[in-house]
Amino acid sequence: MRTFIKVMKALSDPNRLKILKMLQERTLCVCEIQASLGLAQPTVSNHLKLLENAGLVCAKKNGPWVDYSLSDGSVNRYAAALLGNLKHWLRDEPEILRVTENLPNIRRQDVCGK
After folding, report:
1. Which residues form the HTH arsR-type domain (predicted)?
2. 58-95, pLDDT tens digit by residue?
3. Cα radius of gyration (the chain)
4. H or E element: which one contains 62?
């Protein structure tokens, strides 16, 4: 039951839901997420750590960046089920549309300063 609760808690924050919806579009680094959401880097990193601990996202080192992507769900069956359903949920939500439609304009080379 703890695993289920961890996933549900991770999904209980609007910014974490936005992050998941953005990661459905493409792999992102912290700077790109930060630029899209207008949040501080430590806040974004904390959100990503919670999502990673819940088995919803995974991180992979890529040169100077850490790329975040959606988990394949192999670690947590609850995360897998919810990620599968989340693809169909919240598509028309104005806040979700705002961040996902703006993603093509956000490039790590422009926002990361690396």
Report:
1. 1-90
2. 999 988 889 999 998 888 889 999 998 999 999 899 99
3. 13
4. strand 57-62
Show the tokens assigned to 32: 């790109």
CA-to-CA distance for 98 and 114, rounded, in angstroms?
Answer: 26
Q: Give the bridge partners for 61, in sequence order.
A: 66
Which ranges of 26-74 would DSSP assign to H, the alpha helix? 30-37, 41-53
Q: How many CA atoms are closer than 13 Å to the CA of 14, on its beta-carbon side?
A: 7
Residue 86 bridge partners (DSSP)? none
Which two three-digit tokens encode residue 97? 């549309």
Asked whether 112 and 63 are in contact (CB, 8 A), the reply is no
Structure tokens at 83: 């990620």
Q: Does domain 2-100 have CATH number 1.10.10.10?
A: yes
Distance, CA of 74 to CA of 80 (rounded, Å):
7
Q: What is the pLDDT of residues 26-66, one digit of tens each?
A: 999 999 999 999 999 999 999 999 999 999 999 999 888 89
Q: Which residue bears the tokens 């100077």?
A: 64
